Sequence to fold (660 residues):
Amino acid sequence: MRIPSPKGLLNSLDADSVYTEGADIADTKAPDVDIAKRWDERQFTAKLVNPANRRKLSVIIVGTGLAGASAAATLGEAGYQVTTFCYQDSPRRAHSIAAQGGINAAKNYRNDGDSVYRLFYDTVKGGDFRSRESNVYRLAQTSVQIIDQCVAQGVPFAREYGGLLDNRSFGGVQVSRTFYARGQTGQQLLIGAYQALERQIAAKTVTMNTRHEMLELIVVEGQARGIVVRDMVTGEIETHFADAVVLATGGYGNVFFLSTNAMGCNVTATWRAHRQGAYFANPCYTQIHPTCIPVSGEYQSKLTLMSESLRNDGRIWVPKSGEDKRAAPDIPESERDYYLERIYPAFGNLVPRDIASRAAKNVCDEGRGVGPGGLGVYLDFADAIQRLGRSSVEAKYGNLFDMYAQITGENPYETPMRIYPAVHYTMGGLWVDYDLQSSIPGLYVTGEANFSDHGANRLGASALMQGLADGYFVLPNTINDYLSSGPFPKVDASHPAAVEAVEAVRSRIEKFLSIQGTRTVDSFHKELGRIMWDYCGMERTEEGLRKAISQIRELKAEFWSDVKVLGTNEELNQALERAGRVADFFELGELMCIDALHRNESCGGHFRAESQTEDGEALRNDDEFAYVAAWEFGGDNGKPVLHKEPLVYQYVEMKQRSYK
Ligand SMILES: Cc1cc2nc3c(=O)[nH]c(=O)nc-3n(C[C@H](O)[C@H](O)[C@H](O)COP(=O)(O)OP(=O)(O)OC[C@H]3O[C@@H](n4cnc5c(N)ncnc54)[C@H](O)[C@@H]3O)c2cc1C
Fold:
């Protein structure tokens, strides 16, 4: 077991000793014109590549979830030579397939006052004024095109009786702008993107490599020029080269071990790029989703989301008294506390996720939680069933109800669901400019892998929107600006940068296999996850974060001396795959805690207990923290370097968020 931390170590971890500060940075790609014209202007000023020349230019895309598959299909169609990679046996197994509730777009089909500006405004406010205005405005503009594109591909969005596309509401907004395909929106969108990708594979503009894991980025003379991958079936280490590299590798919520993410989600691709010079932005911004099935035991390795769409009709409550142990249906209305409706009457059950999650934690901390351990609140459909009828509720949410019943053995049509917050999404990621280019020229990052447009809190149904905006529309119109200077000088496996990257991968693998310690990779991952959840989860304090940093360092040292990885490299070896991912989670986890420690304010999903309003809401400090924190890798024995990108608000006034 781990050795307890030596006395005195914690005190030596003051903020100054864990990081250093570098020069400020800025996004120089967004044109300095009216916000509504910026995207048009950028598309016009970005250099083009004529169709005949595109054939001579190559792009590597790592990741074929929604963000990667859409980008690969579009760049392939444009005529570039695209090579794609994913670690699953098919692009169709990307984590995107799990997305349930829907995708936002400012179509205003409901005629309920929606507009591009309102989607922009809601998203900036929802992100607690920690996102870039230019990017968010473009996201809102592009949302409209995404729906048309997907409908043209045949994505079966839900329709109203008259045939028009249906909409529902998600948290943090007062309009209905969420397009959906029952509780399987991600699956249907991914099938659309996958079909488009397959078409290009057949046309030979895209070469797909499944079951290949990127383990290193190759940077040649400051430009991203290739990757090192491991064939996960044979163990062969391969190099691939191109004129530009795109990472569309998803989020890193699994650093917490328990999350709603697919078991394979990891940070390795972006972390390896970070170590090569790409800045990592706002790593501590984590989304905790309020409606997940509560943890049921020690041996659980995965948590299940109950889609936010359920909050359209489900009402959240706990008993007024913590002493009340009656079954839910036996508790009379007058003795229930519909706390979201009470505290936030304007948005009720549809407050943003960070607010709903904290409110659930608060009522449970007061001893009013329900279910085993008191870590749960009710999500109740009795009213909706009475108002709409069981068949209507079933038509809207049937597959989610079935899933709940299968997992818990309870019938949610008869007794309220029990839910509790869980890690769901990571707003942090590699820093990118308006063109989606990282701080390494030629390295682009799309989808959940970049630090994105969501600030300190993402609103529901906006990750799919962002991934597809990036892949279908933004990247294909910005990467040409960079590629127009290519093709760049040819690089092959004999280049010293490639030799060094391959050597680094091989020696890491050999190290994992040679330790032959006593503990499994999973046992380390679980312990790391516990530290992250306890100290860098829903509520963070300076004391807790310092403790976490020191505990992570100790656990990491133990991992590198006592992990047991069986088998060999030359076979399918999941323990080996996981060892590499968990090793990177250790380094990321430490940076997340440093980021959370340095940001001595509360904003969105980052709740510092020391910084709250009198009624317990997140209290921002705009004077000191209105910036993106972009971290530069400081070396294995060095300290990360903080670069600040100041955030300027010209179109939305920064004010204390209120959903009351
Ligand atoms: C349960 C659940 C429900 C959700 N519901 C919604 C919703 O209703 N609406 C919404 O907007 N959002 C939703 N989200 C969020 C949304 O699904 C994700 O943010 C989004 O799908 C991420 O897409 P992506 O393309 O960026 O990444 P992913 O879909 O995670 O794809 C990552 C790709 O990268 C590849 N990859 C990763 N690392 C490597 C590597 N080292 N080498 C090779 N390949 C690699 C993988 O193989 C995969 O192809 C939900 C999330 C969850 C967990």
